[in-house]
Amino acid sequence: MPAPRCPPRRGPQSGPSRCSVTVGGGAVSSYQLALQQLVDSALPTGAFAHSLGFETYIDRELLFDEESFGLWLRAFVSRSLAYSDGLAIRFLYEGVDLWELDALLSASLLPREVREASLKMGGRLLEIGAEVFPSAALELYRDLVTSGRAAGHQPLAFAVVARSLGVPLQEALAAYLFATVMSLTQNAVRAIPLGQNAGQRILRKAHDDVAAAIEAIAHLTPDDFGAVSPGLEISQMRHERQRARMFMS
């Protein structure tokens, strides 16, 4: 049985924990297992119900195979995800006010379905996090949302939980971005459709895209926040009026 190497924490905690456990003679930081749980596809946040715009490209016959989806995914990660969710996570870690970041996300997510998706998945993550990974910082965010002073966006809920667990920024970004990539790829496998092996090849190729996005996020400024690709936003808006749909966004 793993043996704790630091005393258990009691009561609400706002600071990161650096506790580790020993497994098979080696030390494993406690946040590593928690982070895997946090980004696992089995976490019931509803990510399976969202395409975040790629279904519009399928409807227009622009996405139809492994290669075309891989190109869309690369553009989404580099020109949308990095400039919105990824940058929001970095700013929260750097101490930017949570309420301010929440308001910026609400203002910058112009497509209604994408904004609602962020709030629905964020709400579920806040609920799950409060039960499974409670902290004073998470309770503060929930209070802001409950009182109507914040909306409750998914990347901020994730960042609050990850930071309270002691997850370093680089690892938090890698986990969040790649979890989004995995969710979208799983949805594309069903929607295009693609084979399971094709999905895994896409994920492998996306490793470099995620790494490049993390590097880019480190050098972005507040002026870059929300500077996403207009084409991606337009496709997300068109989805609202698409006649036949599998996904909510």
From TrEMBL:
Q: What is this protein called?
A: Urease accessory protein UreF
Question: What is annotated about its quaternary structure and interactions?
Answer: UreD, UreF and UreG form a complex that acts as a GTP-hydrolysis-dependent molecular chaperone, activating the urease apoprotein by helping to assemble the nickel containing metallocenter of UreC. The UreE protein probably delivers the nickel.
Q: What is its main location?
A: cytoplasm
HAMAP family referenced in this protein's UniProt entry, alphabetically: UreF (MF_01385)
Gene field:
ureF
Record's family? Belongs to the UreF family.
Query: In this entry, which stretches build a coiled coil?
Result: none
Species of provenance? Pseudarthrobacter equi
Return the GO cellular component terms, semicolon-separated. Answer: cytoplasm
Q: Does the keyword Zinc apply?
A: no
Molecular function per GO: nickel cation binding
Task: State the superkingdom.
Answer: Bacteria
